[in-house]
Amino acid sequence: MNDADVSKQIQQMVRFIRQEAEEKANEISVSAEEEFNIEKLQIFEADKKKIKQEYDRKAKQVDVRKKIEYSMQLNASRIKVLQAQDDIVNSMKEAAGKDLLRVSDDNKAYKKLIKDLIVLSLMRLKEPAVLLRCREVDKKVVESVLEEAKKAYADKASASVPKVTIDDRVFLPPPPKGGDSHEPFCSGGVVLASQDGKIVCENTLDARLDVVFRQKLPEIRKHLLGQNSAS
């Protein structure tokens, strides 16, 4: 083999090695690009998942905040309605209380009322001896009907006529003085208690008004709520 043939074979080997190197380099480049694209896609998907999770978290926060705000507004509205109802009920009670002050103006009717209240109190206590308290201005009225009330109780309860002592030292509060006075007052009526003071029957007009309003309050509120719904 002469030099020309050797040179030719060397050139062929060089071309072959170069071609293999180029093919290998091309394979490496393609593989690297594929890996890069896969990694890029994974990063994109991971970022997209994070963004979606963050969006869902913030959307949930907004939804919760809206529900809290709605609940607060609803509660505030309910409180306003209840406050308005309370104002109406209190004004009704106040008006009724003012009407009570005029009850004692009719002497005849008031005497009968005092007698009935004494009888009712005796029926509840069923004690042989009781202490009676009234307003100082009502003392004469009480004295004028006391005997009749004791006999009426004895007949109704089929019991002996009880001993009723009018308290001359402690009286119920006087009628209200008017204006914005905050002093204790009593619109009328009586309070009876057992001798030992353990059993007390409060039959003042103010106490009976409180009882009536407590009993009628659900009905009053239902009526007011019906009016609000209708309007």
Automatic annotation (TrEMBL):
<keyword id="KW-0406">Ion transport</keyword>
<protein>
    <submittedName>
        <fullName>PREDICTED: V-type</fullName>
    </submittedName>
</protein>
<comment type="similarity">
    <text>Belongs to the V-ATPase E subunit family.</text>
</comment>
<dbReference type="Pfam" id="PF01991">
    <property type="entry name" value="vATP-synt_E"/>
</dbReference>
<dbReference type="InterPro" id="IPR002842">
    <property type="entry name" value="ATPase_V1_Esu"/>
</dbReference>
<keyword id="KW-0813">Transport</keyword>
<dbReference type="GO" id="GO:0046961">
    <property type="term" value="F:proton-transporting ATPase activity, rotational mechanism"/>
</dbReference>
<dbReference type="GO" id="GO:0033178">
    <property type="term" value="C:proton-transporting two-sector ATPase complex, catalytic domain"/>
</dbReference>
<dbReference type="InterPro" id="IPR038495">
    <property type="entry name" value="ATPase_E_C"/>
</dbReference>
